[in-house]
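Retro notes
What went well: the complex prediction finally ran end to end.
Inputs used:
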Amino acid sequence: MLRKIPTTAVPLSIFEVLRGFKSFFGNKSYIKEFESNFARYMGSNHAFSFNCCTASICIFLKAIKKLSNKQEVVIPAYTVPTLVLPIRKAGLKPVLCESSLDTFSMDSERLPDVINDNTLCVLPIYHFGFPYEIDLPLKLARENGFFVLEDTAQAPGATLNGKKVGTLGDAGCFSLCRGKNFSTFSGGMLVTNSDELAGLIREERDLLPGQGFSFKITVPFILTAYSLVTRPVIYGSFYKLISQFKHTTVHDSFESKLYSDFQAIIGLGLLDKLDKFNAIRLKKGMTLYKALKDNAHIILPEIAKNSTPVFNHFPVVFKETKTMEKVQVKLWERGIDTGRMYLKPVHHLYDLGYDRQKESFPKALYIAERLITVPTHPYLDDKSIEKIIDVFKSI
Ligand SMILES: Cc1ncc(COP(=O)(O)O)c(C=O)c1O
């Protein structure tokens, strides 16, 4: 079978990519227009763009360092491991909090165990596009005087109690990299309602270099290739080649730069479609959720009360790893690719000073070893959804 459903995709037409060439003419700043539309969409007072979300986190941390001498930044033990890098680059210390099997994100009940007088910032992360209740981290932040940066990289447009996540804490960061719901291949955003924080972020952001000449001339080709490779027929036909470009290594550095006008034009178009694409993801995701939620072999994340998830992926934790492997093979045979996100918890990849003899974060390890992601993007057709449900029924 040539057709294969990729793990992630954002429908982007070649016509939309071609629009980016407007940025080569005139003096208009499309970045400014994009930032102001993004802020309006999120219901936030300020929005800043960057070359990636990692850079946006680093800039936020550098900004709040000007307001406090505290040194520790808390992230969940199961997450995108490279979050360690912006924390260290800002001269701060990463501290882990155990993950929850209910949300696959930080276990807020365990947060009191890891915060102290030296806690500068906590990052609740909405993994896979699922909002979760952050009342407790926000309350602890008020009582203990630390900042809350919501990592909304995977959940742009998701809501909790009628508000967009990313606007509930001091600031929210978003990733526009490949694999996200809202992607211009690379890019990152930071939003905040605080004028004081916005001033400090702007100071730091204005020190960053712009994109180099080689990026500017290659970005149209990169985006054209990106628009093509996630289409199921192309993905299936050229899988061997495409799979070589999937990330397998854990980075040990990153660069902080400005966003590009070319991508901002693409971003402006995609922002108008974000709600439509998120609604499609929600419908597909909920169909899978309802069909699989009572399957005794797996665990799904809870859907928080009064929340609208945006299903960046459909995450499934298997009680047995052998079952997980079998399901992955069966889905591939039926034309559906699956992903394994974060094969190891953060402290297994970076030396953060945790005891290596005994497992400090058993739930994070449990999730990392047993989680697959199933696609929910707009290219996933109804027939493929039925196939996914069939495969899970057969285990
Ligand atoms: C939760 C989370 N935070 C941060 C990032 C970093 O994003 P970027 O690749 O744009 O730097 C990612 C990207 O995978 C992510 O999933």
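What we learned: Residues 52-54, 80, 125, 151, 153-154, 175, 177, 188 surround pyridoxal-5'-phosphate (CB under 6 Å).
What to try next: split runs per interface for comparison.
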